[in-house]
Amino acid sequence: MHKYKYIILGAGPAGLTIGNCLKQEGENDFLILECEDEPGGLCRSTEVDNAPLDIGGGHFLDIKRPKVTKFLFGFMPEDEWNLFDRDSRIQIGNHQIGHPMEANIWQLSLEEQVRYLKSISEAGCNRGTEPPKEFIKWIYWKLGDAIAEDYMIPYNQKMFGNELDKLGTYWLEKLPNVSFEETLLSCLSKKAYGKQPGHERFFYPKQYGYGEVWKRMGKALGEHIKYSTKASSLDFNGMVVSTSEGNEYWGKYIITTVPWMSFDSFVGMPRKIEESIKSLKHTSIEIKYFSQNLDTKAHWIYYPSKELDFHRILVRHNFCLGSKGGWTETNIDRVCDSDPDTGFRYTNKYAYPLNTIEKPFVMKQLLNWAKTKGVIGVGRWGEHQHYNSDVTVELAMDMVKKLLHEEALCY
Fold first, then answer.
1. Residue 285 and residue 339: Cα distance in Å, rounded?
2. Which one-letter DSSP state was computed for residue 108?
3. 3-state secondary structure of 156
4. Residues 216, 165: one domain?
5. Does one domain contain both 296 and 358?
6. End residue of a domain, out of 120, 154, 189
7. Which residue has the higher pLDDT, 55 or 196?
8. What are the beta bridge partners of residue 235?
9. Nearest 5 degrees, angle CA 42-CA 315-CA 97?
């Protein structure tokens, strides 16, 4: 039995932040267990065609959280990053327009602008009706028939699957908020109005992939990380993590940043809670490299067309300087096995947590109960929330601060 004060599961952004924050506070009685042979989780990078490629899809460092960027710059200084103004676009038919769509329909023909404006004006949110609780109906209510049917519904079906009405609407504040008045202003003035989406400005490494900063954080932790070690069982009674290799690790606290669905078994968990974990849904994605440069200045492009398997392209040569080509993101259920092998491809089993209707109740019940036992869930998978990496880092930093404060009060 290996004993530590803190056992941390997963060396992705959350786990690496927790470990480094503990170390910076003078706490060294901890161990991180990571199933892969390197750190970074979904934010890992590899080298393809003599340039970095991010195997987890598209990940960038948003500038909106100064304490996060300051923390990460402690491992990879700011002068090793380039700062970009986000250029993301949507392919609508034969036209490519800026994202979000409702702020950029002015880039379409006058006839199309009129069609979209008329549809938005008739949307439920502009007629004063109550917002529906079903995902698809909410999209119609918020954006009108035209944007719903041309973009939002087909794109989300490609990304999250066809059963969209199993998704809740509680998370949709994450979407850009552009009013009808702002959409009309954008058409008249020919510039975007309204709240911009996440990553309005972002950092990306000058010479590396996004995985570099997490590699350095892993290196800073040295022997505090045990790689190629999968947590298979979690015993809440004994506070023991068992691994697939047959080893056992005891912790006064166990902090999990890995998917709850990835455990083979739980000990001491109420059956009702254990059964509810089975209702948690997620998607898997495949990323596939292509070498040709695209004739665009966009950093990434969304593709709602059902004729294409992939839902997004990351245009590598426009943010990873000195590279060429890019990569597609495709929901694993849409990957065509007969596609010719064009080179590097990688499958992420756990890519996006799905915000199903019942998820908030399931996670509240699970996390509250687990915490009473000394087990804490943090980050995208520990909380089953579609967090970006900067949000994950901030949550992990705050969690460590709170945990150490509570520890100090006990003494």
1. 15
2. S
3. helix
4. no
5. yes
6. 189
7. 55
8. 240, 267
9. 115
Q: Residue ranges of the alpha helices (H) in 30-147?
A: 66-73, 110-121, 124-127, 135-147
Which residues, 6+ apart, have CB-to-CB distance to 231 below 8 Å?
A: 9, 33, 35, 241, 242, 243, 256, 258, 262, 263
pLDDT band at 340 (very low <50, low <70, confident <90, very high): low
Tokens 């994605």 -> residue: 285
DSSP state of 170: T
DSSP-derived pairing of the beta strands 225-226 and 312-314:
unpaired
Pairing of strands 375-377, 95-98: unpaired
- Residue 197: inside a domain: no
Cα–Cα distance between 400 and 353 in angstroms, integer? 24
pLDDT tens-digit map of 12-49: 999 999 999 999 999 999 999 999 999 999 999 999 99
- Tokens describing residue 174: 């994450």
pLDDT surpassing 90 at residue 98: yes
Angle, to 10 degrees, between the axis of helix 110-121 and the axis of helix 135-147?
140
Please measure the distance between the N-terminal and C-terminal CA atoms of the chain and give it in whole angstroms. Answer: 27
This prediction's pTM:
0.94
Q: Range of 106's domain? A: 95-189
Contacts of 32 (CB under 8 A, 6+ apart): 8, 9, 10, 11, 15, 16, 19, 221, 224, 225, 226
Tell me the C-alpha distance between 230 and 34, whole Å: 6
373, burial (CB in 10 Å: exposed 0-12, middle 13-18, buried 19+): middle
Beta strand 231-235 with 312-314 is: unpaired
Q: Residue 128: which region, alpha, beta or left (left: phi > 0; alpha: psi -120 to 50)? A: left
Model confidence at 319, pLDDT cuts 50, 70, 90, reads: very high
d(CA 249, CA 231): 10
